[in-house]
Specification:
The complex is a heterodimer of chains A (157) and B (409).
Chain A (H helix, E strand, L loop, with lengths): L1 H28 L5 H30 L5 H23 L6 H29 L6 H22 L2
Helix pairs in contact in A: 2-3, 2-4, 2-5, 3-4, 4-5
Chain B lengths: L1 H4 L2 H11 L2 H14 L4 H25 L3 H44 L3 H18 L2 H12 L3 H10 L3 H9 L9 H16 L1 H13 L7 H29 L10 H4 L1 H42 L13 H19 L4 H14 L1 H12 L2 H4 L6 H28 L4
The chains are: A mainly alpha (157), B mainly alpha (409).
């Protein structure tokens, strides 16, 4: 009897330890069942991509001005490119729940694709230590970041 | 000169505690998200760790016994085992983050993937622990960590405006668009970072390693009052540079590579080189502290011989635990789990375990059997009790805040 109690207590303690982390993880990647939820996830993806783009714009300036080292810049670009890819894939994998969500997806996905593509070009240039080329390659990112920021502001509830 | 060098235990503890991987992450990330809106938490944390580290140093000096030894005596074996489990787990997570952090700094210099450097940095940490004397270690790494002053210079060059910074720092609550739950999550992370238990385990064991006696009370106080506020000020500088550069552009910080950008922007390659050196030294200090703390806590709980003041053969079990902690930490660092998240998680979880560490210190610091005439003053007790209440509240809020904020998302 004591053994059963001890086991049950152990299981309850284990569940109590695991549950908060499970809930925290689920809160990050839950499915979208309504337009509002889907819209929220679109805004999050746009904001994360804006963050990556603005970091790279800043990094490109610093790199071209000779204020940083090529490996530091290429690592920075690879890191934030990973964030943008993650945001794009996470959003792309969510099933749009209705037609309004389809329209939202059609609006956002090309912007995310363009961002990921341009970030890859910048990363390649930085890996080749072609730092003077960075401002030219990063130029389209300014408009793209503004567009994504507008998108996020429009759809933020 | 000898007196000046005596404060390096505090400087090393503070750099390893305030500017390790988790702190760099939490300060830069909260600066980018909340501006200086969480600076007050760092100040509260610095005062708290000063109060309790001074007490722990005094207890260790007077009783010639380190904190964990006394924790076991005061809490009893069962509660002390819970404390040991929590402290050891946090140590391992933090150590994994530090090993990965060292490898990430090398990646920033070489451009080669950090996983390549993980075993080499772990080996370097072990070699220092094995070969280098405690006194040399604390002076070398405490001094090298001072390179992080470059972050304060960068902040000065960025010139965010003293008045505006002060207004932002004294404003309680998240900026518009940021949820209270995320604000609370980062608040707990910063508080946990300032008061993380391994600070006092390391500091008090270090006092025994350094052979402090009753005549070293002034050294204890100088260590605490110089080291911890300096570490806290530099962590605020990191937060400030992040707030000045990233917050206005809606950039969130999630990588070590981003932390160098404000310094590059203002001080160029030389500034960046100094920052990278300082970050390496501070993270290395933290790796040393964590590895030793793992050994200290386990050895002190089981009553084994511990420390670097005796020959390794005499403290073989202590060294085995240190080595095992390094091996497990290296394994975790190899897992490709995001070191930033590991560090952040360790900080938040350490907040949950704080009262178990600090309560026994307060009790013993008032016990004349150990302390003779060096027990706490009434004023110090009043402050310490207020902090204990805060620690209990933070500890109780940790898990709900993790869940409600989606781990700071």
């Amino acid at each position: 009897m004591w053994r059963v109690d001890a086991r049950a207590r152990g299981r309850r303690a284990l569940a109590a330890c695991i549950l908060p982390f499970y809930l925290a993880a689920v809160a990050c990647v839950g499915p979208a069942r309504t337009f509002e939820t889907y819209e929220g996830k679109a805004v999050a993806a746009a904001e994360e991509t804006v963050s990556a783009l603005r970091t790279v714009i800043l990094g490109a300036r610093v790199g071209a001005d000779g204020r940083s080292f090529p490996p530091t810049i290429s690592t920075l670009f690879a890191d934030v490119e990973g964030d943008a890819i993650g945001a794009r894939s996470a959003f792309a994998s969510i099933q749009p729940p209705d037609e309004a969500s389809d329209r939202l997806r059609r609006e956002l996905m090309p912007l995310l694709d363009e961002a990921v593509g341009t970030l890859a070009e910048l990363r390649i240039a930085a890996r080749r230590a072609d730092l003077p080329a960075l401002p030219r390659l990063a130029a389209p990112l300014v408009g793209l970041a503004d567009e994504l920021e507008r998108f996020a502001a429009e759809h933020e509830s | 000169v000898k007196r000046v060098f005596e404060v390096f235990l505090g400087v090393l503890t503070a750099f390893g505690g305030f500017l390790e991987m988790g702190d760099l992450v939490a300060n830069a990330e909260s600066g980018a998200r909340f501006g200086m809106g969480l600076a007050w938490v760092v100040v509260v944390g610095v005062v708290g760790i000063c109060v309790y580290a001074e007490m722990a140093g005094r207890v260790a000096t007077m009783s010639r016994r380190p904190v964990f030894d006394i924790v076991r005596e005061r809490l009893g074996a069962r509660w002390a085992l819970v404390n040991l489990g929590a402290a050891f787990l946090i140590n391992l997570l933090t150590l994994a983050a530090e090993i990965a952090g060292l490898a990430l700094v090398i990646e920033l210099v070489t451009g080669l993937n950090y996983l390549l450097w993980v075993p080499l940095t772990a080996l370097a940490v072990w070699l220092v622990l094995w070969k280098v004397k405690f006194g040399v270690m604390e002076k070398a790494f405490g001094l090298s960590g001072l390179a992080l002053v470059v972050a304060a210079v960068a902040l000065w060059r960025l010139d965010p405006g003293f008045g505006e910074t002060l207004t932002a720092a004294t404003h309680l609550g998240p900026p518009e668009g940021e949820p209270w739950t995320a604000y609370a999550f980062f608040g707990i992370a910063l508080f946990g970072a300032a008061m993380t238990p391994y600070h006092v385990f390391f500091f008090s064991s270090g006092a025994v390693e350094d052979g402090w006696t009753e005549s070293d009370m002034a050294v204890n106080r100088a260590n605490v009052l110089l080291g911890f506020p300096l570490g806290g000020a530099l962590s605020l500088a990191i937060m400030g540079t992040s707030a000045a550069v990233f917050a206005p552009q809606n950039v969130s910080v999630g990588h070590l590579s981003q932390i160098g950008l404000p310094v590059s922007l203002t001080l160029g390659q030389l500034g960046l080189a100094v920052l990278l050196f300082g970050m390496f030294a501070a993270i290395f200090s933290a790796a040393l502290e964590n590895s030793l703390s793992a050994g200290y806590t386990v050895a002190q709980f089981f009553g084994w011989q511990w420390g670097k003041f005796v020959r390794p053969r005499e403290a073989a079990r202590f060294h085995v635990v240190v080595l095992l902690a390094l091996v497990v930490g290296t394994g975790l660092a190899f897992s490709t789990l995001d070191p930033f998240r590991i560090a952040e998680f360790a900080l938040v979880m350490s907040a949950a375990a704080l009262p178990l560490t600090y309560f026994p210190i307060l009790v013993v610091a008032n016990d004349p059997t150990y302390m003779r005439e060096r027990t706490n003053s009434k004023a110090l007790n009043a402050i310490a009790i207020v902090y204990l209440v805060v620690l209990l509240m933070v500890s109780a809020a940790t898990i709900p805040v993790i869940v409600l904020s989606g781990a700071g998302a």
